[in-house]
Amino acid sequence: MLELIKNGGWMMIPIILCSIAAMAIIGERFWYLQGKRIIPDDLVPRIWLLHRDRKLDEQAIRAIRQGSPLGRILAAGLLNRKHGREMMKTSVEEVGRHVAHDLERYLNALGSIASITPLLGLLGTVDGIIRVFSDIAVGGMADPSVLSAGISEALICTAAGLTVAIPSLFFHRYFERLVDDLVIRMEQEALRLIDIMQGDREDI
To answer: Is residue 52 part of a domain?
Structure first.
């Protein structure tokens, strides 16, 4: 492995750094974007019980806000529950945009890594081929195996770039779809709570 990295040339350094960054982002997003962590199953029923028992005070709302991303959204609506349905909905939408932005954190960086690493690999390959032909121009082509070996080494960069780019692109698309699904589910939960709090719905 170390020999391959060495043969790939100096362009392997940014490719390796991109691979480390990609793995860190993927691991962090897998940990953060857990469904139960984002959308606790019992949150809306628990809020309804607090409301029914007249225990939905500022302290309870603060605990709800700090408990999960969905809690942040619902807490914004609860703070404005006395101002009517439209005000609750507006406040929920405003906070929801911030929460959605947090869910998408680092995904742009992961997408950039997926786009740039093949280019870095190609640049390293071109640089390697230029060096091979420069050596041939200086010393002549006495041994064809030298040319094939030099080109083989130059192509290591392209292979390394694609090795990083392909999984990065896959997980970038996967996390984008996961975030979209989570946002839709949070919207549904928020609308359900608004209906309950405004007396348009009784079931939980």
So the answer is: yes
Per-residue pLDDT tens, the chain, 204 aa: give them: 666 666 666 788 899 999 999 999 999 999 999 988 999 888 888 888 887 888 888 888 889 889 899 999 998 888 877 777 788 888 888 999 999 999 999 999 999 999 999 999 998 888 878 877 776 777 665 566 666 666 777 788 889 999 999 999 999 999 999 999 999 999 988 888 888 776 655 555
Count of domains for the chain: 1
Q: How many CB atoms lie within 10 A of CB 201?
A: 13
Assigned domain for 108 exists: yes
Q: Which two tokens stand for residue 89?
A: 């909905």
Q: Is residue 133 part of a domain?
A: yes
CA gap 125, 159 in Å, rounded? 9
Between CA 164 and CA 118 the distance in angstroms is 8
Asked if the structure places residue 204 within a domain, the reply is no
- The residue assigned the tokens 């694609």 is 162
The parent domain of residue 145 ranges over 2-197
Q: Which of 177, 165, 19, 18 is nearest to 103 (CA)?
A: 177
Torsion of CA 141, 134, 139, 8, to 10 degrees: -80
Please report, as a single letter, which amino acid is at residue 13.
I
Q: Name the one residue in this structure whose structure tokens are 């906070």.
A: 95
pTM to 2 decimals?
Answer: 0.82
Distance CA 181, CA 99 (A): 13
